[in-house]
Amino acid sequence: MIPRLTAAGFDVIAPAMPGYGFSDKPEAPGMNGTRIASLYATLMHNLGYNKFIAHGSDLGSHIVDMMRRNHPERLLGIHMSNVRSDYPCPDDASPEEQAFLEQAQRWMFEEGAYAMIQRTRPQSLAYGLNDSPAGLAGWIIEKFQAWSDSDIEQVYGLDAICANLTLYWITETACSSVRLYSEIARDHEMQTSPERGNVPAGVIVFPADNLPAPRVWGERWLNIIHWTEAPHGGHFGAWEAPDIFVNDICDFARKVLPARE
Q1: What's the rounded Cα separation, in Å, for the pair 165 and 144?
Q2: Positive or negative CA dihedral for 237, 80, 3, 141?
Q3: pLDDT given for residue 189 in this prediction
Q4: pLDDT tens-digit profile of 147-200?
Q5: pTM above 0.90?
Q6: CA dist., res. 219 & res. 216, Å (int)
Q7: Rounded distance, CA 87 to CA 107, Å?
Q8: How far apart, in whole angstroms, are the C-alpha atoms of residue 52 and residue 128?
C-alpha cells in the first residue's frame, strides 16, 4: 500500500514495531503499547511532523489508541482497521453491543488459543518457532488462511508469503514478536476505560475480519467521523485489498487535513 499512498500525495512513515522485522529486540520488559506510542510520537517529532494521521490494525490499533489517549495534540486523526473488542465491558451495553461481545467471547474459545499462549507463556512457544522454519511457517500461514477472504496464494502470492516468513526467520524475531502480546496484557493503562476524546477517527471494517465491530461499538470509544464497511477482505485487509484500503484513507484524510490553498 505504500506506493499507492505516496502516489496519492502522502508522506508515509512506516516503522516496524519494536521486536518485529527490522526493529531492534527490546532488551528489557516494559515495551508495551503505551511506551511504543510515545516512541512513535517522538519519532514523528524528530522527523519534523508536528501533526499527522496515524493508522493501525491488529496490535497497531492498540498503539494508535494509546497515541490518541496520551498524545492527542499531535494527531490530525486516527484511522483503524476494525475496532478493538477488548475494551472493558460497559454496564449499559446495547443489544447490538452485547451480541458483539458474546461473539468475541465465542471467538476467543474457538480461535484465540494463539493469543492466550502468547500472552501467558510466550517464551515456551518462542523456542519452537525460533528453532523450526516449518513450525514458524505453520504458525503464521494458518492464520493467513483462516483470516483472509480469499485463497492466500491467489491474493498474496507465494513469494510475498515467503518474504513475510523470512522477515521473522532471518531476524530471529519470533520470540520478541510474540512477547509483545504479554507486554500489552500487562499494560495497565491499556486496560482502563478510555475517554472518548476529540481526536477524529476513521474506521474501515472488512467483512471477513476476525470480529467485525458494529458502528455503535466504535462510537462508544472513538470520535467517529468516518465509517466504511468494505465489500470484501479479511484481517489483513491492507494487504488483501490495498486499493479499497488506500481509497478509504484518502477519503478520511480529506475530512481531517487542513484545506490547501
Answers
A1: 11
A2: negative
A3: 83
A4: 999 899 999 999 999 999 999 999 999 999 999 999 999 998 877 778 889 999
A5: yes
A6: 5
A7: 16
A8: 40
Could you give the C-alpha distances from 234 to 24, 133, 192, 209, in angstroms and in order?
29, 25, 28, 4
Q: Which residues pair with 52 in a beta bridge?
A: 75
**E strand intervals along 67-135:** 75-81
- Name the phi and psi angles at 199, rounded to 5: -65, 125
Beta bridge partners of 222: none
Question: How far lies 24's CA from each of 21, 54, 141, 169, 246, in Å?
Answer: 8, 22, 24, 14, 28
Dihedral of CA atoms 106, 234, 183, 168 in degrees, nearest 10, equals 130
Which long-range contacts does 58-61 make (Cβ < 8 Å, 24+ apart)?
58/235, 59/17, 59/33, 59/180, 59/181, 59/184, 60/17
- CA nearest neighbour of 40 among 20, 73, 8, 18: 18
User: Nearest 5°: CA angle at 232, between 226 and 238?
Assistant: 65
Dihedral of CA 8/12/198/66: which sign? positive
Q: What's the CA gap between 228 and 44, in Å, rounded? A: 27
Residue 139's identity, in one-letter code, is W
**How many other C-beta atoms lie within 10 A of the C-beta of residue 49?**
15
Indicate if the pLDDT at residue 207 is higher than 90.
yes
What does the alpha-carbon distance between residue 149 and residue 159 come to, in Å, rounded to a whole number?
A: 19
The x, y and z cell numbers of residue 70, run together, are 496520551
What is the number of other CB atoms lying within 10 angstroms of the CB of residue 163? Answer: 11
